[in-house]
């Protein structure tokens, strides 16, 4: 159940961050509402996962790392942003760090 909550927190955060880009500095009120609701849901779900005894270092590493990788992919695939070799390398390093933190956490 903890991992499901964390996955939902990640999806909410990615949705909110994508909406943040689409809100054009909060000029588009509909997207701005999605931003606020998405971030509130993400933090509430992350908090619930932590309450169920997930280690904060593991939870935050997975939450931020997966979110970063997802947003970079969404930016490149749907928002016309560039995905250069150094960016890909950085994302790979983030994912590797998340894996290492997860492997060393107690379960």
TrEMBL record:
Molecular function in Gene Ontology: transmembrane transporter activity
Gene3D superfamilies associated with the record: 1.10.3730.20
Membrane topology qualifier: Multi-pass membrane protein
Record carries keyword DNA damage: no
Keywords: Cell membrane, Membrane, Transmembrane, Transmembrane helix, Transport
InterPro entries, alphabetized: EmrE-like (IPR037185), Small_drug/metabolite_transptr (IPR000390), Small_multidrug_res (IPR045324)
Transmembrane intervals: 26-46, 58-79, 85-103
GO cellular component assignments: plasma membrane
Localization (cell): Cell membrane
Pfam families per UniProt: Multi_Drug_Res
UniProt feature coiled coil, ranges: none
Family: Belongs to the drug/metabolite transporter (DMT) superfamily. Small multidrug resistance (SMR) (TC 2.A.7.1) family.
Name of this chain's protein: Small multidrug resistance pump
Gene source species: Sphaerisporangium siamense
Lineage: Bacteria, Bacillati, Actinomycetota, Actinomycetes, Streptosporangiales
């Amino acid at each position: 159940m903890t991992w499901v909550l964390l996955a939902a927190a990640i999806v909410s955060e990615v949705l909110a961050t994508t909406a943040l880009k689409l809100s054009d500095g909060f000029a588009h009120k509909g997207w701005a509402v999605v931003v606020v609701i998405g971030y509130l849901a993400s933090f509430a779900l992350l908090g619930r996962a932590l309450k169920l005894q997930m280690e904060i270092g593991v939870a935050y590493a997975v939450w931020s790392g997966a979110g970063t990788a997802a947003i970079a992919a969404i930016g490149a695939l749907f928002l016309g942003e560039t995905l250069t070799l150094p960016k890909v390398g950085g994302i790979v390093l983030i994912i590797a760090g998340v894996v290492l933190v997860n492997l060393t956490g107690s379960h």
